[in-house]
Amino acid sequence: MTRNSYAKGSRDPWNYFSQRAPRRDRNRGALLSSGAMPAPPFIPFSVLLGILGILCVALTVFWNQKWRGGFAWDGSAEMFNWHPVLMVTGLVVLYGTAALVYRVPRSWEGSKLPWKMLHAALTLAAFVLAVLGLVAVFEFHNKAGIPNMYSLHSWLGLATVLLFSCQWLVGFASFLLPWAPNWLRALYKPIHVFFGSAILPLAMAASISGINEKLFLSLKNPTPYSQLPAEAWFANILGMLILVFGLLVLWALAMPAWKRPEPDSQETQQPLLQEAS
Ligand code: HEM
What we know:
Main location: membrane
Catalytic activity: Fe(3+)(out) + L-ascorbate(in) = monodehydro-L-ascorbate radical(in) + Fe(2+)(out) + H(+)
Structural class: mainly alpha
Helix content: 55-70%
Bound molecules: protoporphyrin IX containing FE
EC number: 7.2.1.3
Low-confidence stretches: 1-33
Subunit structure: Homodimer.
Distance between the termini: 30 Å
Subcellular location: Late endosome membrane; Lysosome membrane
């Protein structure tokens, strides 16, 4: 079944955008009708996203290594430096990558199960890094006697991590374990998709507000933030790169032509573990 034969006949509420997807030549990936968001070529777009993701992580490491004293895991200020690295790597770059798993055209053919497992594994890795990133900042605060959870950044950040944790647990229980009935999966799927794409802008906002706060807290003497020293330039650019990476991921998620066709087959409802019959 092609995307179009499915999209034409379908009344599937999950697939609002793909019902409006333009007719497309899948071999060339080109749009054959106008009126919808144009899709750039998938592979160069993915390469660009990969480069941007690597840059976001590398620049975060470089910033902390060059200007903030490097890394340690002993409750010191150097332990704090793991916080931005682990948060950006986990909740922005790995999470953004995980969100795009079903946009890989190969995932549209054959079993969906390996792609579900890849999605779950990448998001689990993102979750583990986020928890370690929180341990880094809480340990540092506790050892240095700095109050916890006073800033807007910390409230936004913790809300993002809590939402992400709920999303992972409910997604795992619904889509990978055998006991959720199909009607419940179908009901929950649009909610999972909505919150899945809402968590990324929240993580971007938390990261950018964190960078901003760190610069205000640390750049005082001799050159304050307002004088735009080299570190401020560098970290401002890092914040803008995180924004560009996140926006491109959101754009890719919204692209009608890149959405996985969802035929009403049993296979798309298939959990990871089948109950013994
Ligand atoms: C998704 C990404 C992020 C999340 C979820 C997050 C979450 C948090 C949380 C929950 C705290 C409170 C810790 C406490 O009160 O002991 C915190 C503190 C902090 N974070 Fe982040 N963070 C993120 C990214 C960043 C980044 C990229 C930076 C850049 C340096 C950063 C800088 C800070 C700073 C300076 C603090 C200490 C001051 C405060 O409590 O606001 N954060 N973060």
